Amino acid sequence: MPPAVEALARQARRVRLSGEAGGGNEALPVPSPCISVCRMDAARVLCEGCFRTIPEIAGWSRMTDDGKRAVWACIAQRLPEPAP
Hints:
The chain has helices at residues 3-19, 54-59, 65-78. By secondary structure, the protein is mostly helical. It has one domain. Helix 1 packs across helix 3. The longest helix is centred in the N-terminal third of the chain and has 17 residues, at 3-19. The radius of gyration is 13 Å and the shape is globular. The model has no long low-confidence stretch (mean pLDDT 88).
């Protein structure tokens, strides 16, 4: 798995844990998944850098923290599996 994808996966885990009961970080802002690799895949479905859809990218600044955590959960599911 490329280093940028590994970093995104680690951040997705941190965001998930911070939003779980007892995580203790609910007061912290939910970080953006943007890694400044703003390029859509060939199908124009997902950003190749942050694995978000265009509506998720466009709506990020207006989302609640719960909405942002939901996007992070989707990102975690979209990430490629690590090579065996």
